[in-house]
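Troubleshooting log. The previous structure file for this entry was overwritten by mistake, so regenerating from the original sequence record. Sequence copied from the archived sheet and checked twice against the printout by T.R.
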Amino acid sequence: MRLVQITDCHLLADPEGTSRKGTPLRQLHAIVDRAKAIRPDIVLVTGDIAQDETPAAYRHARRAFATLGCPWFWIPGNHDQPELMAECHPFHEDLDLGDWRVLLLNSRISGQPGGELGQDQLQRLAWQLEADERPTLIALHHPPLEVGSVWMDAIGLKDRDALWQTLAPYPQVRALFCGHIHQAFAAWQGLVAVYGCPSTSDQFLPRSHEFATDEASRPGLRVVDLRGKTLATWVERVDL
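Regenerated output below.
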């Protein structure tokens, strides 16, 4: 089973609209082409699909992801409008991958850059884990721990301590995958791995005190291979 994570597309209604460093839709198409070349079984899109929160931006995304040739699923980020996303493509909370499964969480807080899961969602997460002991991956937009950038850590997941307390009794949780940080990232919280992913658009400079883009990095995606009960993951980038 091969998963691909794509994140932080920041698309605009104008297909030729530009970001700080490029043209987001053109960059997304390059990432999707790379994803198709490595033949994923499933693609997870972990939020911030749109920058301007327009229906047209989500339609651009849907058309691009429809060419993947495999099922794809998305969650909202802080820049997104969930109602517009749902009109384009449905949300899912639990993906059955046979020996594995994926739980997709919504960390968006309306009108705020930071994220929060909330008590109701954490209670539902505990119930989901109690009901199924298969190896489990969790996807959410906001990083569930500090990544070492002062400005980014200030807008991460507000209730991350509550998340880790919820996960503590459930050793089947093997890894969490997040968006939001626009950079490759890997760390451990106890025995659970946490992975970040490059954006399909602009990249953020790791370990920066203030906001800064990474001039040397390129757009990318994360590949996750599941074989039996083992997990292997790496980042691939594209030249534009």
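The mean pLDDT is 96. Archived copy saved in two places this time.
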